[in-house]
Amino acid sequence: MFIQFGIWDPSIHDSVDQLKRIASGKKLFRSILEMDKSEQTCIISGSKGSRYAVTLNDCDCYDFSMRGIPCKHIYSLANELGFINDFPELKEQAVAEFNATDEMRRFYSLFLIGAISVEKYIRIAEAIQKGK
Description:
Elements: H1 16-26, E1 32-36, E2 41-45, E3 51-55, H2 62-67, H3 72-80, H4 92-97, H5 100-112, H6 118-130
Antiparallel strand pairs: 1-2, 2-3
């Protein structure tokens, strides 16, 4: 799904935590204060007035400094530069074909055979019921 950018192996972007950061990064386009497309850098305004210097390999935010993998700011820059242009969007036909009851049954059967805990089943079931 992702074009190689920066120093990152594309598989790093597949985890749920990274998908959350990608989704957050796509919403930050209004927070970009300065951008140099030729240098592939930008300055992004943080929610508490901070300013983050961002490249495709580095960001001076807390999240990046603690984890050392792409943060939402890096994803925002990558998105603006066209590296995340095929991120799946919600499609009405696919939504119509999604059967929440079948999915609930599938995860319930996984719970019954001991493949997932009751706590995990409950979290999944609640998310399906909420439509998330």
